[in-house]
């Protein structure tokens, strides 16, 4: 059930809204990205669980029972407020709203199969705070078919462009090219420098061979974005720790994740989830190419 009369445009950026400060942060980021990419923006609210006649929330010393109609009313209000916020920030931006009944995790994962990008905050409020919505960002970024951006708290007071730029984790494999492409495009659109980091956890640590591999892996994509200032960086230790460390200084961190139906996702999925949970800046989780294709 949605408030839109037509199917969502597959070129759209979808941002999750629930009226919280975290959701507002995500709306601000998504609206700016949609404006820069000249894409339509859909402000989506997922409410309740389909088939459940009422949801009860105990808070502030009282219990409140929300009926389905109440959930839809609150959902529409959140989506409308998010649309108004996006339109105010970027007049002329094509913004529509949608309200869907169901588990927010499943709603967003399902939509990820048919849209360009999903953007969300890392926490929620009211009915969906902590135990439910607290796990949504991790679940969606782990299972989505398209890139997912999670707008973490930590850099709200910083002026645009005042950070160190974009940080992307790379392993030098062909499968990581979609991750690098996403990072280069993000840096180009936002006029930010890009740092490409390769982490080496085995001894004796990073070598000149690793640096050459990293340089070769980005050569083709680097030539497509000559306007982006690029720094190559080698780090010792676990990738998730290196990417999350001192994350507040970055405008965004980009990390890859193997496709959901491959065994390698158990490794890179854990890395991405850890970065999403620990970072103090915006995190983009990008599905890598399927190595079997």
Automatic annotation (TrEMBL):
Highest taxon of the lineage: Bacteria
Gene3D superfamilies in UniProt: HUPs
InterPro entries: Rossmann-like_a/b/a_fold, Universal_stress_UspA, UspA
Pfam families, per the entry: Usp (PF00582)
Family, as annotated: Belongs to the universal stress protein A family.
Protein name: Universal stress protein family
Lineage: Bacteria, Bacillati, Actinomycetota, Actinomycetes, Propionibacteriales
